[in-house]
Design brief:
With 435 residues, this protein is mainly α. The protein contains 15 helices and 2 strands. It has a two-stranded antiparallel ribbon.
């Protein structure tokens, strides 16, 4: 009973993993703000160069996501996390050094941003894959809830801290703080004592074959397929929406920069609350209905933005409410989706399945952003927002029309997920659900 009350607070390995993720997330949020400011203020970067800098940071999941999953499944996860933390610190350290030597150029920032993005991809896939080794299966939702809550908290605190650091000490010093945060993160990971078995691997297996296996598992598993389709839909239409959202707030609604910042900060607050509520809602509804509740609520929350257009007198509370509600609902869905994915996927495939999900979701981000930018010029900002909101409503249909609707709990995982060469008539024990 004492352990049940304490939950994961008695699990020292999880607490160290949690501390590592929290510190690295705060540091990463500092760089998200400091790096563009460095390019704009110190290097006089043009709009095109700023776009290339953003693309360099977001390209790794699309270009290397599937390969990252193969690598994480072939190696122990804890050393990957330590190595990528130290690697990110070393690469980012070059920025203040080059700045101090007056050698910093925008081309260096492209390369540094891309390399850090690759290492962050490996770190993120590794920790999501490592978590089931640190906590029991029935504690996955609690663990993911705590990790997502701290990540959301970093989204709230990180930008403000970055602004203070850049204002008082300059962008290079702010980035230096991030390098320290990654070293602290690595130190916490080294304190995790959970033993890892040597990953299983077929010596004759090739990288492309293993990448296809990860894709095949996601596509053929009815629960994973629904979650992947829902996530890709959110990325596509969400970034159609986001491509013009800031312009809409500043040009159409007349929001100041401070007001725009408040909108996004309130979204981070909603995310924290959603992460905390994810487990109680799962206990109340079941894991499948909790995911559906979060996804449908996310889509409905977006409807408050068109209402702000139709009711100008209430535009500020409606936009704030939309940001808060959508992030709250999104985290309810995400925490439960990640936990379900970790439960139904055997350890030997978990890295590839996690990476495949990132690949499918991230692949829609640039597509959505390009479509949103084009539509904004062709049909207008408000109309583009309506397209994004309408698309985000679809996200709930993918999960509602799947077996998740009657999924209360996931049966214990075994090593019999759908394989590329397996008979289609063979029943997978990971699909045995408790209605």
């Amino acid at each position: 009973m004492r352990v049940r009350r304490a939950g994961l607070w008695n699990n020292r390995d999880f607490l160290n993993l949690w501390a590592s993720e929290t510190v690295s997330q705060v540091g990463a949020q500092i760089t998200v703000i400091a790096l563009p400011l460095l390019a704009a203020l110190s290097l006089d970067a043009s709009a095109g160069q700023m776009g290339l800098l953003t693309a360099a940071g977001t390209a790794p999941p699309l270009l290397l996501g599937l390969f990252a999953g193969v690598w994480v499944d072939r190696l122990r996860r804890r050393p990957i996390m330590v190595a990528t933390d130290i690697g990110r610190a070393a690469v980012l350290l070059s920025i203040p050094i080059l700045w101090w030597m007056d050698l910093l150029q925008i081309e260096f920032l492209y390369l540094i941003t891309f390399v850090v993005g690759v290492q962050s991809l490996l770190f993120d896939v590794a920790w999501v894959t490592f978590l089931p080794a640190v906590v029991r299966r029935e504690q996955l939702i609690e663990g993911n809830s705590k990790l997502q809550a701290s990540a959301s908290g970093a989204q709230v605190a990180g930008p403000g801290l970055a602004g203070l650091l850049v204002g008082f000490a300059g962008a290079p010093i702010a980035i230096l703080v991030n390098t320290i945060s990654y070293l602290v993160s690595a130190a916490f990971i080294l304190r995790v004592g959970t033993p890892e078995a040597q990953p299983e691997r077929n010596a004759d297996s090739r990288v492309l074959t293993e990448m296809r296996e990860g894709l095949s598992v996601v596509i053929r598993h009815p629960l994973l397929r629904a979650i992947a389709a829902s996530g890709a839909t959110v990325s596509l239409f969400g970034y159609i929406f986001l491509a013009v959202y800031v312009l809409f707030m500043t040009e159409e609604l007349g929001f100041s920069a401070t007001a725009v910042g408040l909108v996004f900060s309130l979204g981070g607050l909603g995310a924290i609350i959603g992460a905390v509520l994810a487990e109680p809602i799962k206990r109340r509804l079941g894991i499948g209905p909790a995911i559906i509740f979060g996804r449908i609520g996310f889509g409905l929350g977006g409807l408050l933005v068109p209402l702000a257009v139709l009711a100008p007198s209430f535009e500020v509370p409606l936009v704030l409410g939309a940001e808060f509600l959508q992030w709250l609902m999104y985290l309810i869905a995400i925490v439960n989706e990640v936990s379900l994915r970790q439960s139904v996927t055997p350890d030997r495939l978990l890295g590839r399945v996690n990476a495949t999900m990132r690949f499918l979701n991230a692949g829609m981000i640039p597509v959505g952003a390009l479509i949103g930018g084009a539509l904004g010029g062709l049909i207008g900002l408000r109309e583009t927002l309506f397209v994004g909101v309408a698309g985000m409503l679809i996200t709930g249909l993918w999960v509602y029309l799947s077996p998740l609707r009657t999924t209360q709990e996931v049966a214990l995982v075994t090593d019999h997920v759908p394989e590329p060469d397996a008979s289609r008539s063979q029943e997978s024990s990971t699909q045995v659900l408790t209605p």
